[in-house]
Amino acid sequence: MANRNPKHASTVLLTRPDPDGKFEILLTRRPNEMEFLGGFYVFPGGTVCPEDSSEKIFRRCRGLSAPEAQKILGDDLSPELSLAHWVAVIRELFEEVGILLCVTESGAEPDVEDGERLEEKRQALVAGTLDFGSFLEAENLFCDLARAVYFSHRVTPEFYPIRFDTRFYLASLPAGQTALPQSEEVADSLWIAPQEALRQTDHDHFPLLPPTTTMLQNLCAYESWQSLCEKFGLS
Q1: Per-residue pLDDT tens for 101-147?
Q2: Distance CA 180, CA 32 (A)
Q3: What is the pLDDT of residues 73-91, one digit of tens each?
Q4: Is residue 2 domain-resident?
Q5: Are the C-beta atoms of residues 46 and 34 closer than 8 Å to each other?
Q6: Residue at 38 is within a domain
Q7: Can you give the residue range of the structural domain that contains 95?
Q8: Which helix (H) or strand (E) element contains residue 124?
Q9: 63-73 b/e with 16+ CB inside 10 Å = b?
C-alpha cells in the first residue's frame, strides 16, 4: 500500500558558470545497490531530520529566520520546520559531496585547505558518530542559509510506495570548493548543462526520473549564467 504521508525532504540544484557564459548543474548517481533509486542520477538532497530543527543548529544559522522561511514555503509548515528545510540542504550537500554552504562567525568563507580533516568529519556525520550541530560548533561555522534560494516544490504522487514532500533549492558552487566525485551515497558525480542532461535521457547509461527531469526542464528557461543569477540572486 502506498504511503499517504510523504516525508519532508530538501534537494539542492548546485550550479556553476561554464566558459561560454552558460551554466552547469551537479548531478550525482546513486550506487546500484541502493534500494531507493539505485543507479539513477539525482540532485544532492534527502529527508529533513529532527536534528535539522534543533536549537543547537538554529544557533548556528545565518541569513534567514524561521518566520522568513515560513513566509517563503507557506503556512502549512511551522516556522521551525520551514527553516529546517534550509538546514537539510546545507547538511545533505556536505554529507553527499563535501560542499560547505557556510561562513565563519565573521562572515568569511570557511577554510577548506585541510581537506583531510573535513573529510574525516564528513564521514563521521554519515556514519552517525558525529552530529551536524557539533560539527558546526567544532569548526566555528554557521550555515549560510541565504545561499540556498527556494526554487520549486513537488510531492510524490500517491501511487508511489515511497513518497516525499520535497522543496528544491538553487545554490552556486562556492569559490575554492570542489564536489567529491564519490561518497557513501554517490557512485559518481558530474557537472552537466541541463539541456545536455535531458538529451542524455535517451541512453541507458543516463537514467533520470521525474522530478529530476522537470527541474532540468525548468532550468532550461534560463539561457545564461547571468540570467539565472539575476532571477534568483545567485552570486
Answers
A1: 999 999 999 999 999 999 999 999 999 999 999 999 999 999 999 99
A2: 18
A3: 999 999 999 999 999 999 9
A4: no
A5: no
A6: yes
A7: 7-232
A8: helix 115-127
A9: bbebebbbeeb
